[in-house]
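Translate structure to sequence.
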């Protein structure tokens, strides 16, 4: 049983921890050898082509720097990139500043430190460990690590992997489906994301109804923006009709709306037109319309008789009060003008009764209007 526990716990891959330690020791020696070899390649490349200002040509020779290094790489069977990198790294690390226990790879990464003294000091002080690792060297020089540990390193790794737009779109969609992730996004970033995602009219149209059904959200919208939204949503006449009808059923809203002269005029005009339309439709389509028209004519006859009776009755009550009363000139003029209007109106009534014509000429119209 103890042996099984040791087998399950103290293993690295397919080997025991003890065997793994032996392999590490052997490989470290090989890495030292490989580092010496690569530095040697770099030193020889420097001898062939010393470092010079960027863009400088090869001195006193028919080859450019690239051509010389490419020829060297071909002749020794290594890649041009490896030879170029070895030359660059060797130029940053004089022989007396190289550390045998540190790999060529780490030397190459730390070569990015521009200041010589800072670079030479850095390689002697690994951060919190007994030896440098490639990832620690990358952290020291601000490069992306192979095995990200901190949140920022993981974020940087994700950004690197998501440079392709299709990959970024897929990752973003997956992340936005995780409520715990969305909850940590800053409000202003959520606004930006929502704005970008709803640029397409179809998407915006699908999202808007859900948002407008949330009272807490609508309550935060500015009054001016609410007005704009309602104006846009009610461009369709059927929608506008339904919304307006609902609003005018609210007493406070109706009262305030009728305070606007234009709105009140439009409502009154609409009522008149609706009444006329209803009457015209009734007269065209209703089977009882002829009977109603006959009744209307009877009502008009009765109204006219009543008007005459009212005039006669009022005159019989008022005229006797003028006995022994002397009217002034202005008063007599006014009464004569009104008597003329009454006489013209009586003539008009007689003509309408006898002929059925109710039109008035211009002179009569002016007289009736008091002109």
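Result:
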């Amino acid at each position: 049983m103890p042996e099984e526990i040791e087998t399950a716990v103290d293993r690295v891959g397919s080997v025991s921890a003890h065997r793994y330690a032996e392999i590490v020791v052997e490989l470290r020696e090989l890495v030292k050898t490989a580092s010496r070899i690569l530095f040697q390649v770099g030193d020889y490349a420097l001898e062939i082509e010393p470092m010079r200002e960027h863009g400088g040509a090869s001195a006193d020779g028919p080859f450019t720097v690239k051509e010389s290094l490419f020829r060297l790489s071909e002749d020794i069977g290594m890649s041009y990139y490896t030879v170029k990198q070895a030359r660059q790294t060797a130029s940053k690390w004089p022989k007396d500043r190289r550390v045998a226990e540190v790999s060529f790879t780490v030397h190459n990464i730390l070569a990015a430190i521009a200041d010589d003294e800072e670079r030479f000091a850095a390689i002697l002080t690994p951060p919190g460990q007994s030896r440098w690792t490639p990832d620690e060297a990358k952290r020291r020089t601000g490069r992306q690590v192979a095995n990200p540990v901190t949140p920022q390193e993981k974020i940087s790794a994700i950004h690197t992997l998501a440079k392709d737009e299709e990959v970024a779109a897929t990752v973003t969609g997956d992340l936005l489906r995780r409520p715990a992730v969305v909850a940590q996004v800053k409000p202003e970033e959520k606004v930006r994301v929502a704005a970008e995602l709803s640029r397409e009219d179809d998407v915006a149209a699908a999202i808007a109804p859900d948002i407008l059904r949330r009272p807490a959200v609508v309550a935060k919208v500015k009054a001016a923006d609410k007005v704009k939204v309602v104006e846009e949503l009610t461009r369709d006449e059927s929608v506008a009709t339904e919304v307006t009808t609902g609003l005018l059923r609210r007493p406070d809203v109706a009262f305030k709306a009728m305070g606007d002269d234009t709105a009140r005029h439009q409502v009154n005009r609409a009522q008149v037109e609706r009444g006329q339309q209803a009457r015209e439709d009734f007269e065209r389509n209703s089977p009882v319309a002829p009977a109603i028209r006959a009744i209307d004519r009877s009502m008009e006859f009765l109204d006219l008789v009543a008007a005459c009776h009212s005039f006669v009755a009022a005159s019989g009550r008022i005229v006797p009060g003028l006995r022994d009363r002397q009217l002034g000139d202005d008063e007599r003029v006014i009464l004569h003008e009104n008597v003329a209007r009454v006489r013209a109106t009586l003539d008009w009534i007689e003509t309408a009764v006898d002929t059925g014509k109710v039109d008035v000429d211009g002179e009569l119209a002016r007289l009736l209007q008091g002109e």
